[in-house]
Specification:
The structure holds two protein chains of two kinds. In chain A, strands 2-1-3-5-4 form a five-stranded mixed sheet. Chain A has 26 helices and five strands. In chain A, helix 3 links the parallel strand 1 and strand 2. By secondary structure, chain A is mainly alpha-helical. In chain A, helix 7 runs parallel beside helix 10 and helix 9 packs antiparallel against helix 10. Chain A has three domains: 239 residues; 131 residues, D-Maltodextrin-Binding Protein, domain 2, CATH 3.40.190; 243 residues, no CATH class. About 4% of the residues of chain A have low confidence. By secondary structure, chain B is an alpha/beta fold. In chain B, helix 3 crosses helix 4. Helix content of chain B is 38%, strand content 27%. In chain B, the strands form two sheets. A six-stranded mixed sheet of chain B has the order 6-7-8-3-9-10, with helices on both faces. In chain B, 45% of the residues are buried. Classes of the chains: A mainly alpha, B alpha/beta. At the A-B interface, helix 1, helix 8 and helix 15 of A face strand 1, strand 2, helix 2, strand 6 and helix 3 of B.
Chain lengths: 677, 249
């Protein structure tokens, strides 16, 4: 197969390199990004700062401030204009940007200023020094007052406020100095603060802060750009131009085609990365001296060892990125559609920005893409762990080969090539809902991760209810009702259970077994995993156990999951998977997904076991109602025990509960025996 | 090596139309050195049938065999025996004709020394050696069609499938296409083609299958079809068969 991969790779590379219109701008960008970032950015920042700091502040003066006006007018750093003392109009004037700051001066201030200016050499110091407040009422009656108005809408207004406050503070200091001098008093000044900056070391195998914070983002952007353009051309473009038809008619395997194309895309992406890195490396020797006005370091320092190691680590990243981009492009019928998919995929470009606080660990090294990215950041900061780097590179390579195997059949998918597909009802009958199921699980898991946590943390018990409705129920209902338009009664197994009402009751009575089992398991886990107690307490705090009324807890923690989670797991997911697996495998797969859904390593085992039992109940009864009954009773019993028994749980209760539940389970099995099916 | 198509059906689904059959219960045979033409109006199911036979589509029911190879069970082996040419199939615009032929020859496992010889002989046979090293983007429609033919026969397949081969061609290009089909037949290959042009069917096909709404209505030589319907020529024969056919609607 390798020879075929190389044949495809060679052809695709030639094809790509001849697409000058796309290639030349992308190459120029890769080459110029280094010089632009290293040489131009500091200059632009310096100019920006200079214009902000050195430009005169535009001040409006309202009220009785003739003396202050004269003084400010004499200051070259201030452009002052007098305006009417109409406080109500200040907001609009500031928002319009006409003035950056408005000073409002009252009569007492003017009088005080005059008295200072005409004060004799012997007049004693008093407390009537001009005070500056920021739009606050002065609490000390009689003190002369200047009110300063600025708006947070314009950054320049904020800067001007700071600078003007300093100008007025200096003015105040001048008066004091003048009076002290005229009184003939000698005052020792507080020694000036000695500011010492510890400069970061400049020697060693690490990049400068500027490079370590920005380089990985820039390289990922370039790698993405380098992968997107050939991926669109080589896969989606091939479909759109109808050249795919001839290709899939050859006896070469689809995996060889996919791998050859992937190799070409990764090659182009990696070449762009190398060019960009070369640009950065070269530019550090030509970086102009940084203006002293820049308060943060923009020095480009990229040792050769860092450059080479970064380049080596970018290779698995380019491959992972390319296979992701190729998979996305493979799922689109047209280039335009693929562009839409890839725009959403581009969210990963921002990943490096949020990773600066992460450092390499065993767990991170096992995550493809992310591991290599963190490794680059670590490497630039001279935190190198070769073992973990080797692990993350191996994981990335494994991930790529897995994806090639999984995604390569998209090349010849009839629905993508010709727009022909089977009807949803027929696909449901044949269990061909792989893509939809993947999308459903991905949606629910992503929503659980991002939305549910926020909802629960901010809205506690109501957040939990919202999670059940929005995160669990809504996606599966939308998929079944609106997207696929499947028969809901069949998918959600809403028919009567085998064994009738008795099977529902016996399923509900299994709950003492599940609860005592979960408690026993938690006790066992607490010996192995030290964090179980803190998690329980955190959950109690978040959900307000003990504070909320019992009926509300039963409604939210027992009833809503019994309906929503059952409709998702024992309804939709079970229905979509039942044609793919044997009943035993199906029970474990759905149970395992149920465990994963709870997103906690500590809760995985108990929830997965509960999930397996619930799926078994669904399989035996052929209906979702006994599952709902068991789920509801399990959660309700747990709440009641937590609320009423607290820590008074006696071991014998558990044993009795377990035994009673076991009897109920056996009754359930009997009630749903094969002759009842 | 002969082609046997047995009861093939292909079902499609469209959100607005619901489920429908692209072809339904189609069976026919094509013997070596024979040109079999599928004649039918647009949307009759000609292309669907050809795509099923050429392994592009998986049939909903039925099967097809080329010699002893089942196209459904062993599509990879079948692909080595099939040359497929369609007017809609594209070419790589940025490659030269020679590069395209080398690429497809290698993908079809043609040994390197045989491949170079075969490319030269195809260039001579199709008379476009002067354009062999020009990029496809610069070629005329007729020359492109020749490149597409060359690509379809680079691995010397036993079964040639032509999907509306002369669509979009000028008179001269269509003529050379017809010449090529005859040449391939004379070399003993099985040829299956689809067309909606009566004159083309009469000129090229040894036997014709009339297809409408996914169903094969009748097969035979022009004379046999005329005899069957009691009509004087193929056009009348065709209209009579299509109008008599029971409609799904």
């Amino acid at each position: 197969m390798l020879d075929k991969i190389l044949i495809v790779f060679k052809k695709e590379l030639v094809d790509c390199l001849r697409d000058y219109k796309a290639l030349i701008p992308a190459l120029l960008l890769a080459l110029l990004l280094g010089p632009l970032t290293v040489c131009l950015t500091p200059q632009v920042v310096a100019m920006q700062l200079k214009s902000t700091i050195s430009a005169p502040i535009v001040v409006a003066l309202a009220g009785d401030g003739a003396n202050l006006y004269k003084r400010l007018e004499a200051d070259k750093g201030v452009t002052v204009t007098r305006i009417a003392d109409d406080k109500d109009s200040f907001d609009k004037l500031l928002e319009s940007g006409k003035y950056q700051v408005i000073l409002r001066v009252n009569g007492a201030f003017r009088a005080a200023l005059e008295s200072y200016e005409s004060a004799s050499a012997v007049s004693p110091p008093d407390n009537s020094a001009p005070a500056v407040t920021s739009d606050k009422k002065d609490t000390k009656a009689g003190l002369p007052q200047v009110q300063l108005f600025y708006t947070g809408l314009h950054p320049l207004s904020f800067f001007a406020m700071g600078r003007l406050t300093k100008v007025i503070a200096n003015l105040s200091d001048d008066f004091y100095d003048q009076r002290i001098k005229s009184a003939g008093i000698v005052v020792e000044r507080v020694p000036t603060v000695d500011v010492q900056v510890i400069a970061p070391p400049t020697e060693g195998p690490f990049a400068s802060a500027f490079m370590s914070k920005t380089l990985s983002s820039i390289l990922i952007f370039i790698a993405f750009l380098g992968a997107v353009y050939p991926a669109l051309d080589l896969l989606t473009g091939e479909r759109e131009r109808h050249t795919m038809e001839a290709l899939i008619l050859t006896p070469t395997s689809r995996r060889a085609f996919f791998a050859g194309k992937l190799l070409c895309i990764a090659f182009v992406s990696f070449a762009f990365v190398l060019l960009t890195l070369a640009g950065f490396y070269t530019c550090q020797f030509f970086q102009p001296e940084l203006p002293a006005s820049i308060p943060f370091p923009l020095v480009c320092r990229l040792p050769l060892s860092c450059t080479l190691a970064t380049a080596a680590l970018m290779l698995p990243l380019c491959l992972t990125l390319s296979v992701g981009v190729l998979a996305m492009a493979g799922l689109a019928r047209t280039v335009q559609q693929a562009q839409g998919y890839l725009t959403s995929f581009a969210i990963f470009l921002f990943a490096p920005l949020g990773l600066s606080a992460l450092h390499m660990s065993f767990a991170l090294a096992c995550v493809p893409f992310l591991g290599a990215l963190v490794a680059i950041n670590d490497l630039l900061e001279a935190r190198v762990d070769y073992g973990l780097i080797a692990l993350t590179v191996s994981v990335s390579m494994l991930f790529v080969s897995l994806l090639v195997a999984v995604v390569s059949p998209v090349m010849e998918r009839e629905d993508l090539l010709w727009g022909s597909e089977e009807s949803p009802a027929r696909r449901y009958q044949e269990g061909k809902f792989g893509l939809e199921l993947f999308l459903l699980c991905a949606t629910v898991f992503l929503l659980m991760f991002y939305v549910s946590q926020t909802l629960v943390l901010q809205h506690h018990i109501w957040g939990l209810l919202a999670t059940q409705i929005l995160v669990v129920l809504a996606p599966c209902v939308c998929l079944v009702f609106f997207w696929l338009k499947l028969p809901a009664r069949q998918v959600f197994a809403l028919g009567a259970p085998r064994g009738g009402l008795l099977s529902c009751i016996s399923a509900a009575l299994i709950s003492p077994l599940t609860v005592s089992g979960a408690l026993g398991l938690a006790a066992l886990q607490s010996k192995v995993l030290p964090d179980t107690k803190s998690l329980e307490k955190l959950m109690e705090q978040i959900l307000g156990l003990g504070k909320e009324p019992l009926w509300l807890l039963i409604l939210v923690i027992a009833l809503s999951p019994a309906i929503c989670e059952e409709l998702l797991f024992r309804g939709t997911i079970y229905a979509f998977l039942q044609k793919r697996f044997t009943p035993v495998k199906l029970t474990f797969v759905v149970g395992g997904l149920f465990g994963l859904f709870h997103m906690s390593t500590i809760r995985f085992l108990p929830t997965a076991l509960a999930g397996i039992l619930l799926t078994f109940v669904r399989y035996r009864s052929g209906s979702i109602y006994p599952c709902m009954c068991l789920h509801f009773c399990h959660n309700a019993l747990s709440i009641l025990m937590a609320a009423k028994l607290k820590d008074d749980m006696q071991p014998q209760y558990l044993i009795i509960g377990f035994a009673a539940g076991l009897v109920a389970l056996l009754s359930f099995v009997y009630l749903t025996r094969s002759d009842k099916r | 090596m002969s082609l046997r198509v047995q009861n093939i059906s292909k079902r499609f689904y469209d959100k607005s139309r619901g489920e429908f059959w692209g072809c339904q219960g189609v069976s026919f045979e094509v013997n070596p050195g024979e040109v079999f033409g599928l004649l039918g109006p647009n949307g009759a199911g000609k292309t669907t049938t050809l795509r099923v036979v050429s392994t592009i589509y998986k049939p909903t029911t039925g099967s097809a065999t080329i010699g002893a190879v089942d196209v459904v069970k062993d599509p990879t082996a079948a692909r080595k025996l099939i040359g497929f040419l369609s007017s809609t199939t594209g070419l790589y615009e940025r490659l030269t004709a020679r590069e395209i032929l080398l690429y497809f020859g290698r993908l079809c496992d043609v040994p390197e020394d045989v491949l170079h010889q075969r490319i030269e002989s195809i260039f001579e046979a199709l008379e476009f050696k002067t354009f062999a090293d020009s990029r496809v983007a610069k070629l005329s429609q007729g020359t492109r069609q020749k490149v597409a033919i060359a690509r379809a026969i680079i691995h010397n397949p036993a079964l040639m499938i032509f999907d509306e081969p002369s669509t979009g061609l000028d008179v001269l290009a269509a003529y050379s296409m017809h010449e090529f089909v005859r040449k391939e037949r004379n070399e003993g290959k099985c040829i299956l083609l689809s067309t909606h042009i009566m004159s083309e069917a009469v000129k090229l096909c040894d036997r014709i299958g009339i297809i409408s709404e996914g169903r094969l209505l009748a097969t035979g030589t022009v004379e046999e079809l005329c005899q069957l319907t009691g009509k004087g020529d193929l056009e009348e024969c065709f209209v009579s068969l299509v109008k008599q056919a029971p409609s799904d609607a």
